[in-house]
Amino acid sequence: MVEINKNKPVLVTGATGYVAGWLVKKLLEEGFTVHAAVRNPNNKDKVHHLDGIAGNTSGNIKYFQSDLLDDGSYAEAMEGCELVFHTASPFTSEFDDPQKELIEPAVKGTANVLNQANKTESVKRIVLTSSCAAIYSDATDVQKTANGSLTEEDWNTTSSLDYQPYSFSKTLAEKKAWEIHKKQSRWELVTINPSLVMGPPLNPKATTSESFSLLKQLGDGTFKMGAPKLGIGLVDVRDVADAHYKAGFTPKAHGRYITSAHNTNFVELGHALQPKYGDSYPVPTKALPKWILMLIGPYVNKNLTRRFIKNNVNVKWKADNSKIKNDLDIKFRPLRETMEDSFQVLIDNGII
Length: 352
Description:
The protein is α/β, with parallel strands linked by helices. About 40% of the residues lie in helices and about 15% in strands.
């Protein structure tokens, strides 16, 4: 049980990120001084939206230049903070060298931040942005669970450098975090494990999120013949930010938290958009047959391997989110609200 002094500054790593932006907004609105650790504080395209929020709230924001792979680069930003939100981590499916572009930044970055916490006497709690990717690799993993539903007790055991390397990076990074945490007793570790994150970005011009690549495909005709019925979990970015905030300031928060609102699939995402946008955009409402995907998938996208298609298409995904609802009193937004708010941002910014 940890009580955080709300008069102390709060550190957010990767503060310009998709989830982090909404978390920083919440902290500023609550009057906190936010220590924003970013790679380039002088890149106005990346920070102007945060400056705008700070200017309209009672909170303050201070930028610190930090790099996941640079030992000691979080020292100044962490000084005096009791609470650290470590959100910075690569999220991409486009890479040439998964070891260098995914594994090393995720694992070394996590170790860098947590080892700095060991040297910073003020730190009492770290909230780490992990992922459901650290809990499962394929939707078929759900069928191997005791109750047909993923829980915080489950770990991803089937991803590797060669198969789903992003999931592998999240698994290794979270395991590294718990390993470092267990060797000390001064600060607590809480992890937030979101499924696929959707919802409006605060800075759409700087959005490189995989979620928005998918969202764009749902409206640009990529899936006009049908979408793969790919079993996934989905959660609103605003709810993920809220989960981080509550994980930081709820004294009894502990362990891992599956942060997923909806057990769904790509076809259902199209159905959620259909009522409002179906007349104007080619949103998919039918499923592409699995056998067609098995034939063409590997040629269309290197990540759509036959193994991936076999294990995820037409396979139901299910996770138990009762722990976060009970411990942190999280209320999740409806799927349609999340999808419509996300899609509208792409339209308003001429992205689609």
